[in-house]
Every structure is written in structure tokens, then in C-alpha cells.
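Progress narrative, work stream C.
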Amino acid sequence: MSLDNISLGAPAPRERGDAARNRRLLLDAAAALVTELGACAVTMDAVAARAGVGKGTVFRRFGNRAGLMRALLDQTETDLQEAFLTGPPPLGPGAPPLDRLVAFGRARLAVIDVQGEVVLEADESPTDRFAVPARFVALTHVRMLLASAGVRGDLHLLAESLLAPLDAALVMHQLRERGIPLDRIAQGWADLVQRVAGSPEPRTTVGIDAANEQ
């Protein structure tokens, strides 16, 4: 499977100049409030007041609070995807697949370190994070790198397992509640990647080839 063939959904309609400016104004206001108060304290009322518009404008633009938080993450996700798809190595093409995989995990952890609260607030339900297009792109990218590194087994489930330690809720718990430094979490990710890549081939391969076609 090639990431070039993945569709992230229908392209958004082109915004008029004034609509794009208003959207940027609202996102700038929301980002400033996140920095000052933390994502959990940001309300639609506060964003509207900071931007100097009516609350209805914020709801029409983003639908609800989770939609506003997702919009804040959109550009970050776009930048990260561009970096691992077309950017310089080791995150982008040109480096060995395992080096790219380690770099991907470190880049994802860096995003959570800065925007972890926003990531959590963007989830409307516990399962939302597993259905968004950005996660599908990340899952496919990890799976492709595992295949390029010659890893054998159920690559789909291995990729899911590798993404699990990068879950924002878990990382935020490790950082804030457990006091684990980000560098240690990143090193743990690198160690896990190496262990997965060096693991022996499964004793049985029944159904694995079919699973890798999913």
C-alpha cells in the first residue's frame, strides 16, 4: 500500500478571503487562550470574546468545542505528515526504515509534549482517536516502515501496538502523573522499535498474510 493513494477525505471547499481571515482570527484566539489557560479551560465564549466576534460565529465555524480543538490540531498534523512523507531524513525518506520509525515516534511525542491537552480535548469519545484519517495515515506509515525493515508477522497489529505508547492520554499521564521525562519515554519507544524489529518470526503464520492486506 502506498501513502500516495490514501485519501484523507473530500477536499475542503475553498474559503473566501474574509472567511479564511475570520477562521485564522478565531484559531489564533483559541491558541493564545490554550497557552495562557490550558486547553481544558478554553470555552467557546472565551474564544469569541478574545476574537471580538459573537459566540454564534465560533459555533458556526467549528460546530462545537471538540471541533475547535480538532481545527487547532489540523495544521500540526499536516506539518507532521509532510515531514514524514516528504521531509528530510531521518523522519522523511532517505534514512533506514527503523531510523525513520524511531524519528516518527520522537516527532509524535514532541507534538504531545506541546499540544497534549489539545489532543485530549479534541476527542469527543474514547474511540474517536482511532477513527480519524490522521491516525490511519500514521498507522499505514508505521506498517510500511516495518515491512521495509523486513519485520515478519501481523504487521497491522504490530503497527497498532507500536502506536499505543504514543497515545496522548498515556503520554500525558506518564509526563504529569508519573513524572517520567520525555527523553525517557522517547528512548523507550526506540527500544520497543528495536525489539519488535529483532523479534523472531511467529511460529504460525495462518491468517497473517490476509491481515496484512487489510
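Work stream C, second folded protein:
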Amino acid sequence: MSSIRLFILDAFARYGEMHGHQLRLQAEQERVQLWTDISVGALYGAIKRLTADGLLAEVRVERDGNFPERQIYAITEKGRESLRELHQATLTAVSRHPDPFDLAFARLDRDRLDDLPRTIQERLDALEHLLVETVDNNNRARPWLSMGEELVITHGEHRLRSEIDWLRSLQSKLPDIIADERARVIPDRATP
């Protein structure tokens, strides 16, 4: 699912015609970079792609004072249909993104097992710092959020807390994990 497509099409459906800079200001006002995977700088390129796909249309060019001319866009009927489908698909789809950490942990470097407790502690410290930063950012944003947006940012906090709890559990088992890794026999390379 494409978060940026959903955001842009929804913004044009909600707020009507606008140019790219207005959309960027809207994204910044909603602080989407704090609670989505959307990069505000990527909006301009995405507008061009949505226009090429026929989901947005260029409706006119405007100039305001000494500012440069700006292309004004609007959502098309095809864009509204795509938005409805994307919205429904995004709400119903369950997404699980594998964490590369899991692969690295399943394939530990036997020569660096003594470093593992420090490495895990550093990861835990980084996640705890990220949680504090996220809670602070969310608290600053809360006065401007709807109830739905409030729940969305709280979801992010819960996910971080869950990851921290899991990592603490892993950390408590590190002596046994390291002993198991040292005792494990690595089979010879598989032959075809």
C-alpha cells in the first residue's frame, strides 16, 4: 500500500484544488513525517506520478505576487475512485514488515559473540531514546489531532514499547543464547 498516494489523493479530495507547495504545507501542519512513512520532500514527485496516472489533473497556472508561477492540481474522478479503493484496501490489509535484525540475530557472527550483550544494549538504548523522542513529539502534536489521529500516534508508541519489552526478554536470555551458539555445530556446505 502506498501511504503517499493515499495522503495526496485524500488531501485533494478534502481540501480541493491546490499547488504542490500548499500540499507540502498541509503535510507539515499535520506533521505526517512524525507518524507515517511519508517524506514531505517526496510529495512533488508523487504529484507528478499521480498526474501521469490520471489520478490528478493540472487545472491552471497561478501566480501570487512575486512568487513563481505554480501549477494548480485537482483530483480526477479516476483519482476519487482510486482513493476509495486504496482507502478500503489499506484499512483491511494486514501488513507485516520483517525486521532485518531478525535475520542478523538468526545468523550471528560466532567470532563476535562476546560483543552481543553490548550490541543488544545499544539497540535497546536507541529504542528507548526513540520512544522518549516519539512521546515528546506526539505530546506536542496532540492539541491539533483528531481522535483518530490521536489513536494512530499512540499505536506507534505501543509498537515501540512492545519492541523494547521483547528486546529486554531477549537480553535476559543472552547467556543461554551465546552458549547455544558456541555449542552449535555448523554443518558442511550443502551439496547440490
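The chain has two domains: 3-92, 100-183. No further action is required on this item.
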